[in-house]
Amino acid sequence: AIHARDGELIWRQELHGRVRTNPILWQGHFQEVRLRVQLPKGAALRDVLAGSTIKDGDRSVKIADRLEGDAIVLDRVLDIPAGRVKPEAYPAFLDFARRADAALGRDVRLRVGR
Predict the structure, then answer these.
(1) Three-class SS of residue 38?
(2) What is the pTM of this model?
(3) Letter string b/e over residues 19-58, b meaning 16 or more CB atoms within 10 A of that residue's CB
(4) Percent of the chain beyond pLDDT 90?
(5) Is the model more confident about 56 or about 4?
(6) DSSP per residue over the chain, as a string?
(7) Pairwise CA distance, residues 79 & 75, whole Å
């Protein structure tokens, strides 16, 4: 068994090039975030907020960020249950983790009028 936190699994696979055992996600993760941010007067989004759903088996990340009037709503659900990842499924899991990380790490940029 691999006794590592989830983030270390990706690092180990990239370091060794191939997974030979079933990596274990010891703890499931479920996070639901809905945050409303009121924009200051004269501010606007620089980019369109893009929603997306990223899935890998029963793991999912859903992003439904949006503009409601003069407020930004960050609406995100992360659902990664505990369990094993079979070695042959690890490349898809790694792709899921990279895409989810990129989507969750996108900047929300504002333009403030003068």
Answers:
(1) strand
(2) 0.73
(3) beeebbbeeeeeeeeeeeeeeeeeeeeeeebeeeebebee
(4) 32
(5) 56
(6) -----HHHHHHHHHHHSS--S--EE-S-EEEEEEEEEEPPTTEEESS----EEEEETTEEEEE--EEETTEEEEEEEEEE-SEE--GGGHHHHHHHHHHHHHHHT----EEE--
(7) 14
What does the block give as tokens for 107?
A: 């900047």
Band of residue 23 on the pLDDT scale cut at 50, 70, 90: low
What's the residue count for the chain? 114
Quick check: 24 and 84 in contact, CB under 8 A?
A: yes
Per-residue pLDDT tens digits for 1-14:
333 444 444 445 55
